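> forwarded from #structure-qc
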């Protein structure tokens, strides 16, 4: 099976390199010629433990390829992953111009059936928008399916998170697309990684809901830390004892400066905006952001 990954940043490159490690033929696409030339030489443009070795091994094996030519990548692939950025707008909503632009480019070069997969973190309803964009921009009357397959990669542990995930989420409305995606992830069945099969909208929301919940957990323990300081209690012991409850768990219960990173701030704001657009108040997320 041939796969194309459009967008060779953190998510796209790890996705491409790990699928190549599964034995799949992968072409990573990016508009940055300098980045592509570097990666062809086995040089990763950012630091991630183990990624450069993984890239070099699969380049040498002939399973991993890099190009700026989206037309060839689309033509040769059965499955096309969209892994471009969705930075926040001023109102907190995700800027979808890169995703939508890639969808138009894919449509222009499609000559036969494709499975088009969003890896990027995208708002609920994006799958329908991509379907509409592709349908309107097709040059030929060909079939395609839309899949949501959100990433759950932590910086510094991205390869481990891909190879030994807590879960793989596949959102699709077509049994053919589900079968193809299961085939892609077949090596993970051997380690009994949980595979969640659902519809596209539910898959899109799972990523936002997961990150928002972790942000809430961090904000909660920081609020408890403030109370501990006032009453003379030890927040570290409180957090440890809470974490021993299996329903709660010990992770993300470390009092500190609050949540940050590249995902939590933008994803909580984006989730609030999704709520507003759908006339649903998300009071807990709102309090967390404030």
């Amino acid at each position: 099976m041939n796969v194309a990954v459009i967008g060779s940043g953190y998510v796209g490159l790890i996705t491409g390199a790990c699928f190549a490690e599964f034995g799949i033929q992968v072409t990573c696409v990016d508009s940055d010629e300098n980045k592509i030339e570097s990666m062809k030489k086995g040089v990763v443009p950012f630091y991630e433990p183990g990624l450069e070795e993984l890239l070099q091994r699969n380049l040498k094996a002939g399973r991993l390829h890099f190009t700026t030519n989206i037309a060839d990548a689309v033509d040769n692939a059965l499955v096309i992953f969209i892994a471009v950025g969705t930075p926040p707008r001023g109102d907190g909503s995700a800027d979808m111009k890169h995703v939508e632009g890639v969808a138009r480019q894919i449509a222009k070069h499609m000559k036969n059936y494709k499975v088009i997969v969003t890896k990027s973190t995208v708002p609920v309803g994006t799958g329908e928008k991509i379907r509409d964009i592709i349908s309107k921009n097709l040059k030929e009357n060909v079939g395609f399916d839309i899949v949501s397959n959100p990433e759950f990669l932590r910086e510094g542990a991205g390869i481990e998170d891909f190879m030994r995930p807590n879960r793989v989420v596949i959102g699709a409305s077509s049994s053919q697309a589900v079968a193809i995606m299961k085939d892609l992830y077949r090596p993970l069945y051997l380690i009994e990684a949980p595979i969640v099969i659902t519809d596209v909208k539910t898959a899109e929301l799972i990523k936002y809901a997961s990150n928002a919940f972790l942000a809430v957990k961090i904000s909660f323990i920081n609020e408890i830390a403030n109370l501990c300081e006032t009453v003379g209690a030890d927040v570290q012991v409180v957090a440890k004892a809470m974490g021993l409850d299996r329903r709660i768990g010990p992770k993300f219960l470390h009092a500190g400066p609050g949540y940050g990173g590249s995902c939590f701030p933008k994803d909580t704001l984006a989730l609030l905006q999704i709520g507003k657009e759908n006339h649903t108040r998300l009071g807990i997320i709102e309090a967390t952001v404030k």
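QC bot note: Residues 78 and 204 are 22 Å apart (CA to CA). Strands lie at 2-6, 25-29, 64-67, 79-82, 114-118, 144-148, 168-172, 195-198.
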